[in-house]
Every structure is written in structure tokens, then in C-alpha cells.
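name: query_chain
kind: protein
chains: 1
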Amino acid sequence: PTDTMNNLLRHSLYPLLSLPLITLCCAADQYPWSNSAPENIVRNALTPDRVLDESASDWRPAVSAIFKPLVKDCRSAREAVLTIAANMTKATGVIYSRERRTPCMNATEALAEKKVSCTGQSILLVCALRSVGIPARAVGLLTWNHIPGNHTWVEAWFDGEWHMIEFNEKDFNTPWVMDYLSMIDPRNPAQRIWAATAEPTGYYFPAVWNRDSRIPAIDVTERYIRLARTWSEQNGQAPDTQKLMVELQPRPASPTIIQLIDDSGNLIDEAPLPGPSDDIRKLATLQLPRSGTHYLRLKNRPGNLIPVSPTDNAVQILHLRRSTPTPSAPNAPSAPTPPATPAPQP
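structure:
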């Protein structure tokens, strides 16, 4: 037997293996990246047939036939991951579509039906990577901070760590996802980020398509907060400031300016607040220094100052509220009440 099969047999996994999986594990030794992952990564992100709670299927022969030829000349797992991810639709004909039959589709169904959700895309990409011996898993969150909606993406394991990658992307750390992740509030349980795994952890993946699902998961929120902050700083955000995005609710009907001042009353930054006709994603954007004491106020309007402090995130979003709205002029805003810091929810 190959080294991979010997490892599997030594850890008593043989009774759990299907014939296609045994074939896969034997074939995996042909790649330069074979046998590079720790055993717990192999058990949870390479040998499992399921990615989330999709229906079981014998997807490996068909998926392997598509993707093994794509990586035959790749000299590293990094190169193989990027080659596969960038060519998903080209190789399979599968596209993202709101017309998909079901959100959580297995790889066999995806190849047959061609229309999938972001979850279906992620399942198929995970299967594609696993088919060539690269550990991979699905990652997701229940909702974004600034707009409603969930998302699922993929992590691939190589060079000793996990790397974020998506269907049809040519590079790691998809910019729009990093931008959205930089805005999450980790104090809110619905915005924590979970990586699916095979072995029980006591915690579960946020499967919005099936609230009764019990997919074991690992909380990876803090790693993504660090990743998003690093990404933001590499793309222009000054390390000594935090992007502060502010909305006054209900949105003011007349032009209204929000100002950021220091404890001496000096103006640090200001921006127009979004109105009722603006896109839901549009917020006032200020640059909050990471040191010193600062307050928010409405320009030319009396009212209390709202203290504001930076968080560890690249971006902080504040939804301010006024108790008695008028059609033209907002009353003084009140400070938002942050959610309590939660323990991970099982």
C-alpha cells in the first residue's frame, strides 16, 4: 500500500472508507503535496465524503475525472488550488444562480443541474480540491453586519495553514468578502464565522437552509478578524486608524453631517449621513484614530456627545437611533447599545 493508505490503516479508518475513497487516497501519493497535512486535518477535511449536510453521493469518480487532469503539471498545492478555483465554471459549466433547486446541493447534483447557490459552489469546490488530495472545508456566517444575508466560502489547507479561496476566483482572500468581513461585529453570535468539520465539537455550522441541521463546526472568527484587518491595511487603511461607518435611524430626510471630534472639541473628520433614498449599503465613513478620546456629534445641531472607541476590527459600524424623528431635522442621536459578548452557541 502507499504511504497514504498505510496512514489510514494505522489509524483504523479503513472500515470507514468507500472504494472510491480508497482509490483516491492511493492516487493522492502521485502529487508533490501528498502526505503533507496533519492526521487530524486529513480526517476532517480530506477523507469525508460530505462537506456540510448535503445528501450523500458517490461524487469522487466524476469529480476526479474533471480535476485531476487540470493539476497534472502543478508543482505545489498553492498552484493546484488556484488552478482549480479559477477554472470551476469552465471545467464544469456550473454557475451561481438564484434559480437553483436547493441551496445545499451535493457535487453530483451540481454537475447535473449546473445552477447552485454560494453554498453549492463551495461544496463543489471543496470536493474538487479533496479529489486531488488537498484538504478543504466550507466556512460561513449567518449574516453580515451592514446588510442582511449569509455567505459560504472555502478554505484549503497547504503550507501549514488554511487559506480562503472561492469558486472562480484567481487569488486568495476575495476582496469583496474581505471588505464585508472587516465590518462584522464578533459580539453578535449571528456574525461569528464557522468552519465545518467532521468530528463533533459541540458547536454547529450556521446552516440557514436547515435550522435543524447539526454540522460540527469550529469557531474561526478571531482569525478572520485579523485577516480582514491585515487585508484592509494592505489596501490603504492606515494602521493607526479604524474606518468608522455610521448610520442614523430613521435616516434623515434633509442633509445631515456627522462629525468626529477629540476631547478638546477639535474636528477630526466629518461626513454626510445617508438619507432615505440612498442604498442600504451606504453609510457615513469616518477615520477614527486608534488612540485618544473621541466623540460623535451632529453638525450645527444641539445634543449630547456620543463617546466612541476603536475595536480590534478593521471597520466599526454604528447604527445610531433618535427617539422622536421629524421629517426634516433629526433630534440628537443616542448611543447604540452593543450586543453582549457571547459564548459560541452550540
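note: Residues 78 and 158 are 7 Å apart (CA to CA).
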